[in-house]
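Protein 1 of 2
SEQ + STRUCT:
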Amino acid sequence: MKSETEQVLRVGEYVFPLDRYYCSYQNSHLWLRMVDENIAEVGIDAFLSETAGRLSYLSVSSERLERGKSFATIESAKFVSRLAAPVSGEVVELNAEVLANPSRVNEAPYDAWILRVRLASREELEAEGMLRSAEQIRAWIEREIERLEEE
């Protein structure tokens, strides 16, 4: 049996490693992976990476995240969006490589984290819209695929 870090969920053409949380809150399509007790990496999931197209711009506009509030902007040739923070906390590190070359997200969305944040409260990991189980993630992405096909 695979360990949790090796397990992935496939939904259509999209892959979701099961070693992290996925934020469906405000349709943000961000993932969050704990790197220690209070620090988490935040990145963009495969669904947003694919549907947005090749990212050409990524800017983080805040040193402190507030759950649900805009903290970054992404752009591609066909897409401009603000990203809503999945959790609250202090930004402790930015991924300079990804900020300088946002298309890294398209190449490897689960390796190309945007920032590391010191969580204000671990309780937010259990808040509405923070998905952890394969069943929750599958149901959400199936709805997202359906929504995309209707547009």
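Protein 2 of 2
SEQ + STRUCT:
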Amino acid sequence: MQMKTDAGNKVLEVSKDTVLYEQGSPCSSMFLLREGTVGLYLNYHTPQQFQLFEISRSGSSLGEMGLFDAEPRNATAVALSDCTLVEISQENFPSFIEAHPEETKQMILDLSQRFKMAIQEVKNEQLIIQESLQALKEAQNNKKDTLKDRIKKISDFLLDIPEDVPPELYLSFNSRFHGSML
């Protein structure tokens, strides 16, 4: 990686397959993509690996949560091509805003877009959950009906109640000659 600066922040030139940051690692900076493509992954290099999305538009940001809330990284960022990025530290963020108002505006738009995507994902998942719960409820109702049908068939077989005789009369008559049926 070669070192240059932009408004006091490091400009990084990284080669394809470079891991920019790892999920769970501490952080206090974010990145602004100047050139190339970066992939964001959950559980990178594990059987549960999942690519969240690719970032390839110049001026797009990644890793902002680390800059704003100092939480551990929630994903792994990997260069999918040779890339040029600006690593923006907490200390130099104000000077970056002053030096690059348009890119700062783009960062805010990126965050807004990601928030909209997250809301849409929540809506989609909620719909899937509602459909699954409805299917489960229908399956339980069908199971209850089936169980009721089975019990009726067994009781009809065991009691052998003639079709034309009301069950109450049959039970009353049967209990006189054979004792209580209950």
